[in-house]
Design brief:
Layout lengths: L1 E5 L6 H14 L3 E6 L2 H4 L8 H7 L5 H6 L5 H14 L2 E6 L2 H9 L5 E3 L7 H8 L5 E4 L5 H13 L5 E6 L7 H4 L2 H10 L3 E5 L5 H9 L4 E4 L17 H18 L13 H5 L2 E4 L14 E4 L10 H4 L17
Parallel strand pairs: 1-2, 1-8, 2-3, 4-5, 5-6, 6-7, 7-8
Antiparallel strand pairs: 9-10
Length: 327
């Protein structure tokens, strides 16, 4: 489970460190940020997304907004060190080539490709050359685009690639989540899959795990009322912890896939199953028929599956009503 801090630090190191605290307390495996140099990522002519205009207004450009959310490379070194102290994996998504080089110097265990870079050939080649496992989000993409990006990664030396189904609308409507598309990615490309979620609440990521997601990524914040583009579509600390608990429970509940009774339920067989018993008093030598036999609990006698083997035999002793039949 990856707790996506993203830019919910609002460009403040102390807020970023508090997000690490929350993620560690919630019990996720990793916390992920976003590393970028604003001028390398966004042109001065780039408009805001509609959801960004809704959450941050229209008085500034996308570039002006993003600059407020930028942390320095040195800040990320400090955050990584703090994550080590908190025993949580530090990850960050690079959004430009300089940021890839910087994150490579931190020797991250996994590199994350965001949905917006899936058609960025130079970016994909540079990520692949790091020769590390890659997680790639696939928002806004069709299968052909995903396939092209996956081939670039594989052809240029990337390690194991995990594909995350994703919808990039903040927040994503449930009818647009399309969780079954995750299964289409797995079937088409033969890779491990997961889900990067932008719906409100925790239902969708829990369902994704039940469907077979091996990675869950979910935005969280210290406070949904903070200023910034992503806070309102993020989980608060209590919701993050609830999601982690629910997903861990689902992981355990999925089990082995073998259909067999658990050790805990084996004692219930005798209580809940039934046996062939005397419907009324039966005397020794009497023919056993449907008139004097029935099926009742407990299940520690002759199984009703042997009904026709018992019919037509004779009683080997007297039986009182409800007594287990013996042959």
């Amino acid at each position: 489970m990856i707790a996506e801090a993203g830019v919910n630090h609002n460009g403040q190191l102390d807020t970023a460190l508090k997000l690490v605290d929350v993620a560690a307390e919630a019990g996720v495996d990793a916390i992920k940020f976003q590393t970028f140099k604003s001028n390398n990522v966004v042109s001065k002519f780039a408009p805001k997304a509609a959801y960004q205009e809704k959450t941050t207004g229209t008085d500034e450009t996308q570039l002006e907004m993003v600059k407020k959310l930028e942390l320095s490379f040195e800040n990320f070194r400090l955050i990584q060190n703090y994550c080590d102290q908190k025993d949580i994996i530090f990850l960050s998504t690079p959004f430009d080539l300089d940021s890839i080089d910087f994150l490579a110097s931190l020797d991250l265990p996994i590199y994350k490709v965001p949905s917006g870079e899936i058609t960025n050939l130079p970016y994909l080649m540079k990520i692949a050359c790091l020769d590390k496992p890659v997680i790639m989000s696939t928002g806004m993409s069709n299968l052909d685009e995903v396939g092209l990006a996956l081939n670039v990664l594989r052809d240029n030396g990337a390690g194991t690639v995990t594909l995350l189904h994703c919808n990039t609308q903040y927040p994503t409507l449930f009818e647009d989540a399309n969780l079954k598309a995750m299964l289409a990615l797995k079937e088409r490309f033969g890779v491990t899959v997961g889900y990067s979620d932008h719906t409100l609440g925790i239902e969708a990521p829990i369902a994704a795990v039940a469907l077979g997601a091996t990675v869950i990524e979910k935005h969280f914040t210290l406070d949904k009322n903070m200023e910034g583009p992503d806070h309102k579509a993020s989980l608060d600390p209590q919701e993050l912890k609830a999601m982690v608990t629910a997903i861990r429970n689902v992981e355990v509940a999925l089990g082995t896939g073998l259909k067999e009774p658990s050790d805990s339920e084996l004692p219930n067989r005798e209580v809940a199953r039934k046996s062939i018993v005397a419907k009324r008093n039966i005397t020794r030598g009497e023919l056993l028929t449907e008139d004097n036999l029935t099926v009742k609990r407990p299940g520690n006698g002759i199984s009703p599956m042997k009904w026709f083997e018992v019919l037509g035999t004779t009683a080997n002793r007297d039986f009182c009503e409800d007594e287990l039949i013996e042959l």
